[in-house]
Every structure is written in C-alpha cells, then in structure tokens.
Design a protein that fits this description.
With 263 residues, the protein is of the alpha+beta class. The chain is built from five helices and 16 strands. Pfam families: DNA_ligase_A_M (PF01068).
Length: 263
C-alpha cells in the first residue's frame, strides 16, 4: 500500500482559544500525500490521483524510505503568500516553472509502520525528526498553542490568508474521515451581488453593482435555487443576494461564491 486517504476537516464559523488544541495556518494550495513505502517515492492528491511525474523536485527530496507524509502543496507569490491560481497553473502544465513548496503537517507512517494511532503531538515530534530543517521546497507547517488561536486568525484576516485549522493535541489520524478533532475556520469575504441570469445547468450568473461579471454561484440550497429559477423562468429582474467567498481571482471574479441570503 502506498496511498493513504487523508483525514478531512470539520468546519466551524469562528475560532476559539483552548490549550487542548494546536493552531495552524490553513494554506491555499492543494492536499498532497508523499509516500515512500514502495521502491520509489510517490505523490498523490487527496482523491488518489497519482501526480509523481509532475513534481520531480519532490521525489528528489532527502527523505527516508518507509514514510507517508500529509501536507499542502503551495506556490507563493512575491510577498511569500500562497497563490492558488499559480499553484493550479503549475499543476496543469508540465512546462510551468513555478517553484512549489511542500508544507507538511503530519506523518502517517514512519519506518514502514503506521503511526496514525499516536496522539498528534507525538506525530509532530516524529515529523521534527524527519524534517529537522525547513527549506524553500520542503517545510513543516508552523504550530502555535491553541490558547492563541483567535490571535492567529486575526493575523490571518489582516493578511488576507485563507484561514486557520485547530487540531486536538491528542487526536489520532482518522484516514478518509471528517472529524471534529480537526476544525477549519475559513477567512471568508462577504459581498452583495446580483443574480443576473442562469447557466445551462441552473447555476447563477453573478454581477457586481456596475454590471461587470462577478462569477458563477454553484452553491445554494434547493429552496433558494427554486426561487431564482422561477424568477427567470418568468423573465424576472435580477435578484440581489449576499454571498460569501474566498477573495477574488486575478480576473476579478468571486472565488467559490456561496449563497447566504436574499437582499
């Protein structure tokens, strides 16, 4: 076995301070599992897509055999902040020269033995031994005590970063499962926009107040979708709504907008 399905995050709306937790930045890239259980290192996305050949710099890392690591692959901008679009550009094109950083936050196997049953703090200690020194290509995700989680989240918001993750210090690694022992708090932005029309499959075409396109909303509850559909079925006027989203794309569109309520 080389692939391990990653543990998933529960979700809450606001951070809390608690000494039974650690707090980490939620990085804006994509989940990557590194495995050297076989003859050669292999890389997998969270959905078990084999991407080893896309990142030769990661297979050349000075890491021991018999380990499985979990982390986030990011591409950073000139300010050192994760750039999701650049990360996806590197993923999509083998010709891309974007430098990647593998930010590791957990170890699942060590010396060919599963350590997923161990408390998180013990796995973190193993990770410190596996990656004793951070580098531009391979680094450990920074950790602070959960007593300061809200302060970290405030910094995250001030710097327009993606969010924070809270993890119980005694948590086991639950492969492929979503758990309330790992919780994410996303730094959402809230924007009022117009639903100006529908796509062929019923998603919402959004516009800003000045009429410029704001993107497509795919996430709305059934009742709201039915209300909007009936409006445009009767050739109604645009409907103003409030959405939450993860910042703007470089093209000026809302990133992953999700309906909150009508205005």
């Amino acid at each position: 076995m080389t692939f391990v399905s990653p543990m998933l995050l529960g979700k809450i709306d606001a951070p809390f301070d608690d000494s039974q937790y650690i707090a980490e930045l939620k990085l804006d890239g994509f989940r990557l599992v590194y495995s050297s259980l076989g003859a050669k290192p292999r890389l997998y996305t969270r959905h078990n897509t084999h991407v080893t050949s896309r990142y030769p710099e990661l297979t050349a890392l000075d890491l021991p055999p018999g380990i499985v690591l979990d982390g986030e692959l990011v591409v950073c901008d000139a300010d050192g902040k994760p750039d999701f679009e650049a990360c996806m550009s590197r993923f999509s094109s083998r010709k891309s020269k974007q430098a990647v950083t593998y930010c590791v936050f957990d170890v699942l196997y060590s010396d060919n033995q599963s350590v997923m049953h161990l408390p998180l703090v013990e796995r973190k200690a193993l990770l410190d031994a596996i990656i004793p020194v951070n580098s531009p290509t391979l680094t450990k995700v920074g950790v602070i005590d959960g007593l300061h989680a809200r302060q970290l989240y405030d910094v995250c918001c001030a710097q327009s970063l993606e969010g924070v993750v809270l993890k119980r210090k005694d948590s086991a690694y639950l492969t492929g499962k979503r758990s309330d022992t790992w919780l994410k708090i996303v730094n959402y932005t809230f924007t009022d926009v117009w639903v100006a029309g529908l796509t062929a499959n019923g998603d919402w075409l959004l516009e800003f107040d000045d009429g410029t396109p704001a993107g497509i909303c795919e996430f709305a509850p059934p009742l709201a979708r039915k209300t909007v559909y009936r409006n445009f079925e009767g050739r109604g006027e645009p409907i103003k709504v409030r959405v939450k989203h993860r910042s703007l794309t470089k093209g000026g569109y809302l990133r992953i907008p999700s309906f909150l309520h009508f205005l």
